[in-house]
Amino acid sequence: MTTRLSLMLAASSLVLATPALAEEEGLTPEKVAAIQRDEAAAQAKVNTEYGNRKPSEMSNAERGQSIRDQQTEAAKVMEKHGVSAKEYATYTARMKPDDTQRVANEAKRLDDKAKAEKEAEAKKRKGDGEVHIQQGFSDSDPVEMESEEGAEPVVDVDSNLESAPVVETGGDTAGPPTKSISRKASKSGSRRGR
User: Fold this and answer.
1) Where is region (Disordered) located (predicted)?
2) Most buried residue among 106, 108, 145, 158 by CB atoms closer than 10 A?
3) For residue 69, which of 102, 44, 96 has the smallest C-alpha distance?
4) CA-to-CA distance for 100 and 33, rounded, in angstroms?
């Protein structure tokens, strides 16, 4: 009789510890919201692959393949978050109303964060509306951006480039050859054998 009682106590402790174990493994309402968001994005991706058509507008073969693709994407999302589909389903089925509210709040926060990141990216691409012109590589070593027509080009030679080879420029051969700055070929930029 005592062994039966100890077995019952052990089994009941395992059953009662299941929700606690799920949270220890990292399944929280916040993680559920992230999983739901990723899963919705994966489903939207599959839907766009099939032209956002309703299942009734697809053939049987297309509908079946669409369902298999959606299941594959859902499995990838679960694997990404390190949760099995069974654990996820069990946890979401046993969530309390306050957990459901936490999921909704986290989903709203994630949406707001994604929207803010998208706006920041658009603003970064657009800039502040002004065109900034840099006159040279730096303030201490400026480069002439525009010149007058017919004027001889002015080239400033850096002291580090004194060993650079002399390159003759085309045009008037009566005068002495002018020095030109040549770039040293970098290892990744050299293209020999072309």
Assistant:
1) 44-194
2) 106
3) 44
4) 9
Task: For Cα atoms 91, 94, 95, give the angle at the middle one, nearest 5 degrees.
Answer: 85
The 10 Å CB-count burial string (b at 16+, else e) for 49-84 is: ebeeeeeeeeeeeebeebeebbeebbeebbeebebe
- Taking a C-beta distance cutoff of 8 angstroms, is the pair 68, 46 a contact? no
182: Cβ–Cβ under 8 A, 6 or more apart, which residues? 161, 164, 165, 167
User: Rounded to an integer, what distance in angstroms lies between the CA atom of residue 76 and that of residue 127?
Assistant: 37
Global confidence as pTM: 0.52
3-state helix, strand, coil in the chain (%, to 5): 55, 0, 45
Q: What is the mean pLDDT of residues 82-87?
A: 93
Q: What is the number of other CB atoms lying within 10 angstroms of the CB of residue 180?
A: 14
Which position has the higher pLDDT, 75 or 163?
A: 75
